[in-house]
Design brief:
Order of helices and strands: EHEHEEHH
CATH class of the domain at 6-83: Alpha Beta
Low-confidence stretches: none
Number of strands: 4
Strand order of the largest sheet: 1-3-4-2
Mean pLDDT: 76
Strand content: 5-15%
Length: 171
Amino acid sequence: MSQEAERVYTINLGKVWLSPNNQRAKRAINMIREFTEHHMKTGQIKIDQDLSHAVWEKGIRSPPRKIRVKMAKTDEGYVLVSPYLDEEKPKAKKEEPKPEPKEVQEIEKKPEEKPKVESAKKSETPKPAKAEEKSKVEKKEEKKAEPKKAAKPAKAEAKKSEAKKPAKKSK
């Protein structure tokens, strides 16, 4: 196959979302077929099973908005449409940073060690503060729990007094 017989396209399937939600994946397949007819100038089209699975992956209601495809004309005269798998291109080698002089590296290491010690000291000091906060929180919870116990009997007495009242007779 020559370069002209094989092409890669990104097909925009955004208009699929204008159709009813229970027909979207079907419409997406039809749009791929129409796009292929237009660009490859032939009516004999075969859609690869992998491409179909890619469109139907999330179900009939939510096909992809865009899909990258590879269209190839075969010797039999039909066009095979398949999903485009990115072929990895060799990446350019990144320039390695030049090693710094030893003196500069030693100077940079010394300031880094000091903050580590300071951070260890800082982590020790907040711990007692957290313990104090916990004790405050526990005291607040105890205070909240005590009034609730007292409030429950008062509500129970109010209900009993309401129950003793005679019910009003309806006319």
